[in-house]
Write a structure and sequence with these properties.
The complex is a heterodimer of chains A (about 325) and B (about 290). With about 325 residues, chain A is α/β, with parallel strands linked by helices. Chain A contains 12 helices and 12 strands. The model of chain A has no long low-confidence stretch (mean pLDDT about 85). The longest helix of chain B has about 35 residues. The chains are: A alpha/beta (about 325), B mainly alpha (about 290).
Chain lengths: ~325, ~290
């Protein structure tokens, strides 16, 4: 980590009251993102990664209870007055969602949505905002941007819509962009384009970025650091090359094994992670990955492993039976 | 992981194409009828018509003639003049009452669906009370205490329409408020007012407008029914419902006195429904999405 962190998540927990009891969606997470750096948050569905991103943006459901501190640029977002928080969002923080079908307003044209955002935040007049919108659309690789401004979201393809969503998120030059599964709803060739686009715009604007995904392949080579989440907790955290060279947490290994290999023989069954994550309303006493872990032993049943540093202080993991696996992936 | 790198030029699709939609002859027929009715009602005073309230006791239930194009009614009043002046009442009440409903009900519904919580409970609860109140008794009570007038009739029908509009608006808002584009707007620092007016309202207004045209049609019929029962506009003002009611007395001798206003009402209501449906299909940009 170079320099002071732009965003630091300190001991953040999110609790959701449900009819079945208290659901601990995020469990004492600590994370840092420096200016201009990229953090990948990886984990399967329901492990709390989206809740964590909503906690950072202070966009949690009303019933959710947040504890801990979300320090952004020296201010605690969780304790910021609503009006100041509103000004900060958009200007400094932006988000790109998973499904571009639903993240754009279906009844407003692309132009209206972009231009209004620009006018609202940068206080541009109509003409200047329009020129800026065309530039932005061109920057995210949309051909014939002037005509596109007059179109509705349904008239664009999925990849195009995601580009528009990125253009809107980038419109106010945020310092931190949170991309919540930005490519999950897109097909594979478009995925790579969108990820490259995000990386290019990030470099150009020197903004920090958090990529949330369930695909380790997405974070490889595109992030500086990776945090692996399981059942609301960060279970392994390391600089990206380090993680792929030497992973310690069996869950990380299992996630990596679940990526289909391009050189596998046809009809090879996919190595899925057997079982399901534990019921978040009934936390286990021991390690939450224990029931699905093939290395589990006695201690894993009784005690929760703490996040501890490995060889270097940057690499942390929470496991009693760490493994030493190198991924056969160029990181 | 090896990924396939593709240039951005890969998804150049060329410039967007505009589609033109064709409207059926039925739609245009409905438009023509609506325009004719509205124009006749608006310019009723300028048209070379006999007065709708002047009685001619020597010419009661007279057949069509050069002087009375559609004949006269049971009191010798010109039928065509009464039809056109009746259209005025039907249209004013039929349009103004749903306007009250869509404004108050729509606003309450959007606010309730967006803010939820106690406000929503309060709104939904009071609407349930309003719905449970027998409408005919309500109309009777108002006309009994405040008297019969077009204004009172409009207000009664408008208030009675609020719960339905509130429900349509709230249902639409509920399904939209947790959609990602609303969260995205919040993430971009939009105020509540902005989200309500720019993100939600344009989405909610489409089903609401379709319901509004239906509301116009229903209100015209209800106004007719109330006038038929003698609860509508006070005589001698002509209204379609009242004319049907009066025509009922001479159904055997001159059935046209009841059927002409009934037919006018039928055509108008049908036109509103047809146009409403077509307009909704046309203006809804989501229709094109598969």
């Amino acid at each position: 980590m170079t320099g002071p962190a732009l965003l630091s998540v300190e001991d953040v927990s999110v609790n959701l009251p449900t009819p079945r009891g208290n659901l601990r969606a995020v469990d004492r997470v600590d994370l840092n993102v420096g200016a201009g750096r990229t953090l990948g948050i990886v984990g399967e569905s329901g492990c709390g990664k989206t809740m964590l991103s909503r906690a950072i943006l202070q966009l949690l459901p009303k019933k959710a209870m947040l504890s801990g501190r979300v320090m952004f640029d020296g201010q605690d977002l969780a304790r910021l007055a609503p009006e100041r928080l509103r000004k900060l969002r958009g200007r400094s923080l932006a988000v790109v969602f998973q499904d571009p079908m639903t993240s754009l307003n279906p009844v407003l044209t692309i132009g209206t949505q972009l231009i209004e955002t620009l006018q609202e935040h940068l206080e541009l007049d109509g003409q200047a905002a329009k020129i800026r919108s065309v530039e932005l659309l061109a920057a995210v690789g949309i051909p014939a941007p002037e005509q596109r401004l007059k179109q509705y979201p349904h008239q664009l393809s999925g990849g195009m819509r995601q580009r528009v969503a990125i253009a809107i998120a980038l419109s106010c030059e945020p310092k931190l962009l949170i991309a919540d599964e930005p490519t999950t709803a897109l097909d594979v060739t478009i995925q790579a384009q969108i990820l490259d686009l995000l990386a290019r715009e990030q470099r150009r604007r020197h903004m920090a970025m958090i990529i949330i995904t369930h695909d380790l392949g997405v974070v490889a080579g595109r992030t500086d650091e990776v945090a692996v989440m399981y059942a609301g907790r960060v279970v392994e955290r390391a600089p990206t090359p380090e993680l792929f060279k030497n992973m310690h947490m069996p869950y990380t290994e299992a996630l990596l094994a679940a990526i289909p290999k391009i050189d596998a023989k046809p009809h090879t069954p996919l190595p899925a992670i057997s079982g399901r994550p534990p019921d978040p309303t009934r936390p286990l006493r021991g390690c939450s990955f224990m029931p699905r872990c093939r290395y589990a032993w006695a201690q894993c049943h009784i005690e929760k492993p703490r996040l501890e540093p490995a060889e270097s202080p940057d690499h942390q993991y929470a496991c009693f039976r760490p493994i030493n696996t190198a991924a056969g992936v160029p990181a | 992981m090896a990924t396939l790198e593709l240039g951005i030029e890969g998804d150049v699709v060329g410039s967007p194409v505009r589609r033109t939609r064709r409207l059926g002859p039925l739609f245009w027929a409905a438009i023509v009828w609506m325009v004719a009715v509205v124009a006749a009602a608006a310019f009723a005073d300028l048209l070379p018509l006999p007065s709708p309230t002047d009685m001619d006791m020597l010419e009661r239930r007279a057949p069509a003639s050069a002087l009375h194009w559609l004949g006269t009614d049971g009191l010798g009043r010109d039928e065509l003049a009464r039809l056109i002046h009746g259209a005025r009442v039907s249209l004013i009440v039929g349009v103004c009452a749903p306007v009250i409903g869509i404004t108050i009900g729509g606003a309450l519904g959007i606010l309730a669906g967006y803010f939820r919580g106690r406000f929503e409970t309060l709104v939904v609860g009071s609407m349930d009370v309003l719905l449970a109140f027998p409408p005919l008794v309500f109309a009777l009570a108002v006309t009994a205490y405040l008297g019969q007038s077009i204004l009172n009739l409009t207000c009664v029908l408008g208030v009675l329409g609020i719960p339905a509009f509130m429900r349509v608006a709230r249902a639409a808002t509920l399904s939209l408020a947790r959609r990602e584009f609303v969260i995205a707007a919040q993430a971009l620092g939009a105020t509540h007012a902005r989200i309500l007016l720019r993100e939600l309202l344009p989405n909610v207004i489409l089903p609401l407008f379709a319901f509004f045209l239906l509301g116009v049609a229903v209100t015209i019929v209800v106004e007719g029914a109330l006038s038929f029962l003698g609860l509508g506009v006070p005589p001698p003002t002509a209204s379609w419902g009242g004319m049907i009611g009066e025509g009922r007395e001479s159904l055997e001798i001159a059935p046209r006195l009841a059927f002409l206003p009934a037919f006018a009402m039928f055509l108008t209501v049908l036109s509103f429904n047809l146009v409403g449906d077509t307009l909704r299909a046309l203006t809804d940009p989501r229709q094109g999405a598969l």
